[in-house]
Design goal:
The chain has one domain. The protein is about 45% helix and about 15% strand. It has 6 helices and 3 strands, in the order αβαβααβαα. The protein has a 3-stranded parallel β-sheet.
Length: about 100
């Protein structure tokens, strides 16, 4: 039981130290502006920077946000599928996907 509490506290500490939101350049739309206005820390990366990120890099964020206000084609987010083996192990909370 004690070990479980220590692990929980370590997880909370890591979450508190995490940056808030990760956005990809070209996908920052209204959600990016709203996050900044609300005081969240944001990091905007290029596609090349995204491709070079490790699981550890992705785990530093509380959320990864990829908005698509124009219901673009799947080819626009192919990079997300191509890199899922790297970013997905870093996601330890809820996942919200809205497809319209």
């Amino acid at each position: 039981m004690r070990l479980s509490r220590i692990a929980s506290l370590a997880g909370l500490a890591a979450s508190a130290l995490a940056e808030d939101l990760l956005f990809l350049e070209g996908f920052q739309y209204k959600e990016y502006d709203e996050a900044v206005a609300l005081g969240y820390t944001t990091k905007l990366v290029t596609l090349a920077e995204w491709a070079a990120m490790t699981t550890e890099d992705f785990s530093k964020f509380k959320a990864i946000i990829l908005p698509d206000p124009d219901c673009g084609s799947l080819s626009q987010i192919k990079f997300f599928e191509d890199s899922k083996d790297v970013w997905s192990p870093a996601v330890t909370g809820n996942i919200i996907l809205i497809g319209t």
